[in-house]
Write a structure and sequence with these properties.
Length: about 120
Amino acid sequence: MNVVRTVIASLALATATPAFANTPAPAFDWAGLLPMVVIFVLFYFMLIRPQMKRAKEHKQMIDALQVGDEVITGGGVLGKVTKVTDTYVTLEIAKDTRVVVQRPSIQTVLPKGSIAAA
């Protein structure tokens, strides 16, 4: 009989409402979110924004390619532009030696006369 009373008492305690049940829930704490916002802002100004600026400058350089420009590709090939199409550029890397590369692979446009100096 003692066991039955213990079980009934424990069930009664488990279903009883706690004393703090009538208190309102605490408000959302914005201070916990603040470090994440600060980190995102830092990432934006230190990483994302400069990368977008470099990508925009590279696109403008690629769009401005003309025949006669001296360029370096991403693979380090130095050459003079002999033909420009929408997606490809033909480079003369030596006398009577031409290679076709994709436009985005052009890394740098050099000043005129750079190939002669190399």
